[in-house]
Amino acid sequence: PKDEIRFDGKVAVITGAGAGLGRIYALELARRGAKVVVNDLGGARDGSGEGSPTPAQKVVNEITALGGEAVANYDNVATVEGGENIIMTALESFGTVDILINNAGILRDKSFFKMEPENWQAVLDVHLHGAFNVTRPAFKVMKQNGYGRILMTTSAAGLYGNFGQTNYSAAKMALVGFMNTLKIEGGKYGIKVNTVAPIAASRLTEDILPPALMEKSNPGFVAPLVLYLSSDRCPVSGNIYNAGMGFFNRAAVVTGPGTVLGGQAVPTPEDLLKQWDKVTTLEGGKEYSQLNDLVGDIMGAFATPSDDKGKETAGIRSVAEV
Ligand code: NAI
Question: Which fold is adopted by the domain 11-251?
Fold first, then answer.
Protein backbone atom coordinates (compact mmCIF):
# COMPACT_ATOMS: atom_id res chain seq x y z
CA PRO A 1 0.00 0.00 0.00
CA LYS A 2 1.03 3.60 -0.75
CA ASP A 3 0.96 4.64 2.90
CA GLU A 4 3.13 1.78 4.09
CA ILE A 5 6.11 2.99 6.09
CA ARG A 6 9.19 1.16 4.82
CA PHE A 7 12.88 1.22 5.66
CA ASP A 8 14.35 -0.41 2.57
CA GLY A 9 17.93 0.71 2.05
CA LYS A 10 18.04 2.32 5.50
CA VAL A 11 20.54 1.37 8.19
CA ALA A 12 19.41 1.50 11.82
CA VAL A 13 21.49 1.27 14.98
CA ILE A 14 19.64 0.36 18.15
CA THR A 15 21.47 0.33 21.45
CA GLY A 16 20.43 -2.11 24.16
CA ALA A 17 18.51 -4.10 21.55
CA GLY A 18 19.19 -7.55 23.02
CA ALA A 19 16.00 -7.48 25.07
CA GLY A 20 12.86 -5.58 25.99
CA LEU A 21 11.93 -2.54 23.90
CA GLY A 22 15.10 -2.40 21.83
CA ARG A 23 14.63 -5.98 20.64
CA ILE A 24 11.14 -5.19 19.38
CA TYR A 25 12.33 -2.02 17.62
CA ALA A 26 15.06 -4.06 15.91
CA LEU A 27 12.66 -6.80 14.79
CA GLU A 28 10.03 -4.37 13.50
CA LEU A 29 12.53 -2.19 11.63
CA ALA A 30 14.08 -5.28 10.02
CA ARG A 31 10.63 -6.63 9.12
CA ARG A 32 10.06 -3.41 7.17
CA GLY A 33 13.32 -3.59 5.29
CA ALA A 34 15.94 -1.86 7.47
CA LYS A 35 19.42 -3.27 7.95
CA VAL A 36 19.94 -3.31 11.68
CA VAL A 37 22.87 -3.13 14.08
CA VAL A 38 21.74 -4.86 17.27
CA ASN A 39 23.91 -3.49 20.04
CA ASP A 40 23.77 -5.00 23.50
CA LEU A 41 26.38 -5.41 26.15
CA GLY A 42 24.41 -8.25 27.71
CA GLY A 43 24.93 -7.10 31.29
CA ALA A 44 22.79 -7.26 34.41
CA ARG A 45 19.82 -5.00 35.06
CA ASP A 46 21.96 -2.70 37.21
CA GLY A 47 24.80 -2.68 34.67
CA SER A 48 27.07 -4.84 36.79
CA GLY A 49 28.93 -7.97 35.66
CA GLU A 50 30.88 -9.06 32.63
CA GLY A 51 28.32 -8.85 29.86
CA SER A 52 27.49 -11.51 27.30
CA PRO A 53 27.16 -11.68 23.51
CA THR A 54 24.11 -13.93 23.80
CA PRO A 55 21.22 -11.39 23.89
CA ALA A 56 22.37 -9.39 20.84
CA GLN A 57 23.24 -12.52 18.86
CA LYS A 58 19.85 -14.08 19.64
CA VAL A 59 18.02 -11.05 18.26
CA VAL A 60 20.19 -11.13 15.14
CA ASN A 61 19.24 -14.81 14.72
CA GLU A 62 15.57 -13.92 15.07
CA ILE A 63 15.89 -11.23 12.40
CA THR A 64 17.78 -13.53 10.06
CA ALA A 65 15.09 -16.18 10.53
CA LEU A 66 12.52 -13.61 9.35
CA GLY A 67 14.59 -13.04 6.22
CA GLY A 68 15.94 -9.72 7.52
CA GLU A 69 19.48 -8.36 7.71
CA ALA A 70 21.20 -7.64 11.02
CA VAL A 71 24.56 -7.68 12.72
CA ALA A 72 25.34 -7.92 16.42
CA ASN A 73 27.56 -5.55 18.38
CA TYR A 74 28.51 -6.03 22.02
CA ASP A 75 30.13 -2.70 22.84
CA ASN A 76 29.42 -0.66 25.94
CA VAL A 77 27.64 2.62 25.16
CA ALA A 78 29.06 4.10 28.35
CA THR A 79 32.55 4.51 26.84
CA VAL A 80 33.68 6.79 24.03
CA GLU A 81 35.36 3.88 22.19
CA GLY A 82 32.23 1.78 22.66
CA GLY A 83 30.12 4.42 20.95
CA GLU A 84 32.60 4.72 18.09
CA ASN A 85 32.75 0.94 17.63
CA ILE A 86 28.96 0.71 17.45
CA ILE A 87 28.81 3.20 14.58
CA MET A 88 31.90 1.60 13.00
CA THR A 89 30.02 -1.71 12.98
CA ALA A 90 27.23 -0.02 10.99
CA LEU A 91 29.69 1.51 8.53
CA GLU A 92 31.68 -1.69 8.02
CA SER A 93 28.64 -3.95 7.72
CA PHE A 94 26.18 -1.73 5.85
CA GLY A 95 28.12 1.35 4.69
CA THR A 96 26.22 4.06 6.57
CA VAL A 97 23.84 4.93 9.39
CA ASP A 98 20.46 6.59 8.86
CA ILE A 99 18.67 5.86 12.12
CA LEU A 100 19.97 5.81 15.68
CA ILE A 101 17.78 4.74 18.57
CA ASN A 102 19.43 5.48 21.91
CA ASN A 103 17.71 2.87 24.04
CA ALA A 104 20.28 1.10 26.25
CA GLY A 105 19.54 1.51 29.92
CA ILE A 106 20.08 0.32 33.46
CA LEU A 107 18.50 1.07 36.82
CA ARG A 108 20.00 1.63 40.26
CA ASP A 109 17.07 2.83 42.32
CA LYS A 110 17.72 4.15 45.82
CA SER A 111 16.07 6.86 47.85
CA PHE A 112 18.23 9.97 47.57
CA PHE A 113 19.35 9.66 51.19
CA LYS A 114 21.06 6.37 50.25
CA MET A 115 22.25 7.34 46.78
CA GLU A 116 26.00 6.67 46.69
CA PRO A 117 28.06 8.51 44.04
CA GLU A 118 28.77 5.26 42.19
CA ASN A 119 25.07 4.55 41.69
CA TRP A 120 24.51 8.09 40.51
CA GLN A 121 27.46 7.87 38.14
CA ALA A 122 26.67 4.46 36.65
CA VAL A 123 23.18 5.52 35.61
CA LEU A 124 24.36 8.84 34.13
CA ASP A 125 27.11 6.95 32.29
CA VAL A 126 24.80 4.56 30.46
CA HIS A 127 21.82 6.80 29.69
CA LEU A 128 23.26 10.27 29.20
CA HIS A 129 26.91 9.71 28.32
CA GLY A 130 25.89 6.58 26.42
CA ALA A 131 23.63 8.64 24.17
CA PHE A 132 26.42 11.18 23.66
CA ASN A 133 29.02 8.51 22.88
CA VAL A 134 26.93 6.86 20.16
CA THR A 135 25.22 9.96 18.78
CA ARG A 136 28.46 11.85 18.20
CA PRO A 137 29.94 9.50 15.56
CA ALA A 138 26.46 8.84 14.10
CA PHE A 139 25.75 12.57 13.72
CA LYS A 140 28.96 13.01 11.69
CA VAL A 141 27.80 10.43 9.15
CA MET A 142 24.24 11.79 9.06
CA LYS A 143 25.50 15.32 8.55
CA GLN A 144 27.52 14.16 5.52
CA ASN A 145 24.49 12.31 4.17
CA GLY A 146 22.13 15.23 4.75
CA TYR A 147 19.72 12.80 6.41
CA GLY A 148 19.23 11.27 9.81
CA ARG A 149 16.76 10.19 12.46
CA ILE A 150 17.85 10.15 16.09
CA LEU A 151 15.70 9.04 19.00
CA MET A 152 16.35 9.55 22.68
CA THR A 153 14.64 7.40 25.28
CA THR A 154 13.42 9.36 28.26
CA SER A 155 11.02 8.25 30.99
CA ALA A 156 7.99 9.50 32.87
CA ALA A 157 10.26 9.29 35.90
CA GLY A 158 12.40 12.03 34.37
CA LEU A 159 9.58 14.10 32.91
CA TYR A 160 7.45 14.05 36.06
CA GLY A 161 9.44 12.48 38.93
CA ASN A 162 9.34 9.11 40.68
CA PHE A 163 10.40 8.18 44.20
CA GLY A 164 13.78 6.49 44.41
CA GLN A 165 14.99 7.50 40.95
CA THR A 166 16.92 10.77 41.31
CA ASN A 167 19.83 9.36 39.27
CA TYR A 168 17.60 7.94 36.56
CA SER A 169 15.32 11.02 36.43
CA ALA A 170 18.32 13.33 36.09
CA ALA A 171 19.79 11.25 33.28
CA LYS A 172 16.48 10.89 31.45
CA MET A 173 15.64 14.60 31.60
CA ALA A 174 19.18 15.47 30.51
CA LEU A 175 18.45 13.62 27.29
CA VAL A 176 15.60 16.06 26.64
CA GLY A 177 18.05 18.96 26.96
CA PHE A 178 20.43 17.15 24.65
CA MET A 179 17.63 16.79 22.07
CA ASN A 180 16.54 20.42 22.41
CA THR A 181 19.86 21.67 21.09
CA LEU A 182 20.69 18.78 18.76
CA LYS A 183 17.43 19.33 16.89
CA ILE A 184 18.63 22.88 16.12
CA GLU A 185 22.11 21.84 15.05
CA GLY A 186 20.81 18.89 13.01
CA GLY A 187 17.89 20.69 11.40
CA LYS A 188 19.78 22.15 8.47
CA TYR A 189 21.22 18.72 7.60
CA GLY A 190 17.92 16.89 7.47
CA ILE A 191 18.51 15.31 10.87
CA LYS A 192 15.42 15.01 13.06
CA VAL A 193 15.73 14.28 16.76
CA ASN A 194 12.81 13.19 18.94
CA THR A 195 12.32 11.62 22.34
CA VAL A 196 10.11 8.75 23.45
CA ALA A 197 9.05 7.93 27.01
CA PRO A 198 7.95 4.30 26.82
CA ILE A 199 5.87 2.30 29.24
CA ALA A 200 6.30 -1.43 28.79
CA ALA A 201 6.84 -4.66 30.63
CA SER A 202 10.53 -5.54 30.71
CA ARG A 203 13.09 -6.58 33.24
CA LEU A 204 13.53 -2.89 34.11
CA THR A 205 9.89 -2.56 35.10
CA GLU A 206 8.97 -6.05 36.36
CA ASP A 207 8.81 -4.88 39.98
CA ILE A 208 7.75 -1.28 39.26
CA LEU A 209 4.66 -1.42 37.05
CA PRO A 210 1.39 -2.38 38.74
CA PRO A 211 0.59 -6.04 37.85
CA ALA A 212 -2.63 -4.99 36.08
CA LEU A 213 -0.65 -2.76 33.73
CA MET A 214 2.15 -5.29 33.34
CA GLU A 215 -0.14 -7.71 31.52
CA LYS A 216 -1.11 -5.18 28.86
CA SER A 217 2.33 -3.71 28.42
CA ASN A 218 3.86 -5.64 25.60
CA PRO A 219 6.76 -3.54 24.22
CA GLY A 220 5.20 -4.06 20.80
CA PHE A 221 2.72 -1.31 21.70
CA VAL A 222 5.55 1.25 21.85
CA ALA A 223 7.21 0.25 18.58
CA PRO A 224 4.74 1.94 16.16
CA LEU A 225 5.66 5.40 17.46
CA VAL A 226 9.37 4.62 17.39
CA LEU A 227 9.08 3.40 13.80
CA TYR A 228 7.09 6.42 12.66
CA LEU A 229 9.59 8.84 14.21
CA SER A 230 12.48 6.84 12.68
CA SER A 231 11.01 6.93 9.20
CA ASP A 232 11.37 9.39 6.34
CA ARG A 233 7.70 10.26 6.99
CA CYS A 234 8.53 11.67 10.45
CA PRO A 235 6.86 15.11 10.52
CA VAL A 236 8.52 16.57 13.61
CA SER A 237 11.80 17.30 15.36
CA GLY A 238 12.39 18.17 18.99
CA ASN A 239 9.24 16.56 20.38
CA ILE A 240 8.59 14.28 23.36
CA TYR A 241 5.97 11.50 23.38
CA ASN A 242 4.69 9.04 25.95
CA ALA A 243 3.84 5.63 24.52
CA GLY A 244 2.56 2.43 26.06
CA MET A 245 -0.30 -0.06 25.81
CA GLY A 246 -1.47 1.62 22.62
CA PHE A 247 -1.82 4.99 24.37
CA PHE A 248 0.13 7.92 22.91
CA ASN A 249 0.39 11.56 23.92
CA ARG A 250 2.83 14.42 23.62
CA ALA A 251 4.62 16.10 26.50
CA ALA A 252 6.20 19.54 26.31
CA VAL A 253 7.78 22.36 28.24
CA VAL A 254 5.19 25.13 28.35
CA THR A 255 6.12 28.68 29.33
CA GLY A 256 3.55 31.10 30.72
CA PRO A 257 3.07 34.66 29.43
CA GLY A 258 4.57 36.17 32.60
CA THR A 259 4.64 39.79 33.59
CA VAL A 260 7.04 42.66 34.25
CA LEU A 261 7.31 43.73 37.90
CA GLY A 262 8.72 46.88 39.47
CA GLY A 263 8.43 49.22 36.46
CA GLN A 264 11.83 50.87 36.04
CA ALA A 265 12.92 49.87 39.55
CA VAL A 266 14.26 46.55 40.77
CA PRO A 267 11.24 44.54 41.95
CA THR A 268 10.95 43.46 45.56
CA PRO A 269 9.99 40.06 46.94
CA GLU A 270 6.72 41.72 48.02
CA ASP A 271 5.99 42.62 44.38
CA LEU A 272 6.21 38.91 43.63
CA LEU A 273 3.96 38.07 46.56
CA LYS A 274 1.34 40.49 45.24
CA GLN A 275 1.55 39.40 41.61
CA TRP A 276 2.33 35.71 42.08
CA ASP A 277 -0.67 34.56 40.03
CA LYS A 278 0.42 36.63 37.06
CA VAL A 279 3.97 35.30 37.32
CA THR A 280 3.00 31.68 37.56
CA THR A 281 0.00 31.30 35.31
CA LEU A 282 0.37 28.98 32.33
CA GLU A 283 -2.80 30.26 30.75
CA GLY A 284 -1.94 31.50 27.28
CA GLY A 285 1.37 29.71 27.67
CA LYS A 286 3.36 28.51 24.71
CA GLU A 287 6.09 26.18 23.64
CA TYR A 288 9.36 27.75 22.65
CA SER A 289 11.43 26.05 20.00
CA GLN A 290 14.68 27.71 21.03
CA LEU A 291 16.19 30.11 23.57
CA ASN A 292 15.69 33.14 21.34
CA ASP A 293 11.91 32.68 21.44
CA LEU A 294 12.06 33.48 25.14
CA VAL A 295 14.39 36.43 24.61
CA GLY A 296 11.99 37.78 22.00
CA ASP A 297 9.07 37.58 24.41
CA ILE A 298 11.04 39.29 27.18
CA MET A 299 12.01 42.10 24.83
CA GLY A 300 8.40 42.25 23.69
CA ALA A 301 7.22 42.64 27.29
CA PHE A 302 9.24 45.86 27.54
CA ALA A 303 8.36 47.26 24.14
CA THR A 304 5.74 49.99 23.92
CA PRO A 305 2.99 49.34 21.36
CA SER A 306 4.56 51.71 18.77
CA ASP A 307 8.02 50.32 19.34
CA ASP A 308 9.13 47.39 17.20
CA LYS A 309 12.77 47.61 18.24
CA GLY A 310 12.24 45.03 20.91
CA LYS A 311 11.65 42.37 18.31
CA GLU A 312 14.46 43.45 16.00
CA THR A 313 17.14 43.49 18.64
CA ALA A 314 15.97 40.25 20.20
CA GLY A 315 18.27 37.33 19.88
CA ILE A 316 21.32 35.96 21.54
CA ARG A 317 23.79 34.23 19.31
CA SER A 318 26.08 31.65 20.74
CA VAL A 319 29.78 32.00 19.98
CA ALA A 320 29.73 28.54 18.43
CA GLU A 321 27.27 29.74 15.82
CA VAL A 322 29.51 32.45 14.37
P1 NAI B 1 15.76 -3.88 29.26
O2 NAI B 1 16.59 -4.07 30.47
O3 NAI B 1 14.89 -5.01 28.82
O4 NAI B 1 16.67 -3.47 28.03
C5 NAI B 1 17.77 -2.61 28.14
C6 NAI B 1 18.93 -3.25 27.41
O7 NAI B 1 20.05 -2.35 27.45
C8 NAI B 1 19.40 -4.55 28.08
O9 NAI B 1 19.34 -5.62 27.14
C10 NAI B 1 20.83 -4.25 28.51
O11 NAI B 1 21.71 -5.35 28.37
C12 NAI B 1 21.22 -3.12 27.57
N13 NAI B 1 22.30 -2.31 28.13
C14 NAI B 1 22.40 -1.85 29.40
N15 NAI B 1 23.53 -1.17 29.56
C16 NAI B 1 24.17 -1.17 28.37
C17 NAI B 1 25.40 -0.60 27.90
N18 NAI B 1 26.18 0.09 28.73
N19 NAI B 1 25.73 -0.78 26.61
C20 NAI B 1 24.95 -1.50 25.77
N21 NAI B 1 23.78 -2.05 26.16
C22 NAI B 1 23.39 -1.89 27.45
O23 NAI B 1 14.88 -2.57 29.52
P24 NAI B 1 13.76 -1.81 28.65
O25 NAI B 1 12.61 -1.61 29.52
O26 NAI B 1 13.57 -2.44 27.33
O27 NAI B 1 14.44 -0.36 28.49
C28 NAI B 1 14.80 0.24 27.27
C29 NAI B 1 14.89 1.74 27.47
O30 NAI B 1 13.60 2.27 27.78
C31 NAI B 1 15.80 2.18 28.62
O32 NAI B 1 16.48 3.35 28.24
C33 NAI B 1 14.82 2.48 29.73
O34 NAI B 1 15.35 3.39 30.66
C35 NAI B 1 13.68 3.06 28.94
N36 NAI B 1 12.40 3.06 29.64
C37 NAI B 1 11.72 1.90 29.81
C38 NAI B 1 10.49 1.93 30.45
C39 NAI B 1 9.67 0.73 30.55
O40 NAI B 1 8.50 0.86 30.97
N41 NAI B 1 10.15 -0.45 30.19
C42 NAI B 1 9.96 3.16 31.04
C43 NAI B 1 10.73 4.32 30.74
C44 NAI B 1 11.91 4.25 30.09
Answer: Rossmann fold (3.40.50)
